[in-house]
Specification:
This protein is of the alpha+beta class. 28% of the residues lie in helices and 25% in strands. Helix 1 (2-8) packs across helix 3.
Length: 93
Amino acid sequence: MGKAMLAADFREVRAIVGPGPYPRRTEHSITTYEELVTELAEIQRLGYAVDRQELNLGVWCVAAPIAIMKEVRGLLRPTWPSSTARPTTSKCR
């Protein structure tokens, strides 16, 4: 969910989250600033973020920003168990 918010305007990402390294919550977590910026660029291109067990093992979610007049006001974030997820061709993590 945080990636979707950051990707909406990620010019100030380093000021918001710092230069890293970031805590590894699972083996899928993004831990470097470079990984994060690459991910945010892909999220911005796609218009949504995918969390494939980055925060919690066994949980996937997709997050899409809800914008009003180009300002993000909220997110839509369905979540499901990873056991029901299917692989995707998206480069988004």
